[in-house]
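How a chain folds remains the central question behind the approach discussed here. No coordinates are needed to read the tokens, only the vocabulary itself. For completeness, the protein is quoted in full, as a sequence line and a line of structure tokens:
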Amino acid sequence: MFKQLAAMMQRPALYEKGTTVQTEIWTDEHISKGMLEAHLDPELEAATRSHHHVREIVKWIGAVAPADKYPALLDLGCGPGIYAELFCSAGYAVTGVDFSKRSVVYAQNSAAEKGLPIKYHCQDYLTLDFVAQFDVITLIYYDFGVLSAQDRAKLLTKIYAALKPGGVLIFDVYTPQHLAKREESSHWEYEREGSFFSPHPHVCLHSFLMYEEKHTFCERYIIITEQEIRSINIWEHTFTEEELKQDLSLAGFLVSGIYGNTTGAEYCKDGKEMCVVAKKGE
């Protein structure tokens, strides 16, 4: 077990997977339960932003891409449908995609109870196969930066294909300023009653690792229980305006707006986040 732990403690290569790959956070029986609880907490800025914040985001998107002009909306990473239900109530025909079966089942049940005609799909959005079906696609809460460069390019190609001519993509990312004045760190905690990552007593070794030359950081968790050791690497890339415009251009998009966040704040080059509205050609 010591050799296994020592190997996990080595600095991972860029976008190297842990023993528990990042997507399994959304499919693990125990962790997905905690994720759903975090989504549904109206005050928590965690899996989903606070629900007040979500309403402000939906209101702004409704002004940028109003439902009467952009009626068909695809919400990527829809979780339990918090955004999707608000979009539906605002007049959009909504489709949601998420990797977590637990969240999608919750979203389907909630929509049925409220009589909302939302379509949900449980799948990895890197496997999208929609063709010219949507007027607007949203990818909210820095999800784009979680992916490697290759997967980001793949996703943009999938999104471009899924949009109708003239359709828009709205998404947000961190900028390199998010890492300013931050330092690498490591600490450990003993969870006697279990925690988000395991229902069993365990030690959690958490490291914040920076890859500054790549504008990328990693949150690494090593979970040690009596039965096993496993590691989870959660990656996030930060973007300059120039890099993001280049990536979008290579996929065929035109950038029609850059904002300071997903409620339409004025963009500032010193800001820690950026929201982009990108358009597919007519």
About this structure: The mean pLDDT is 94.
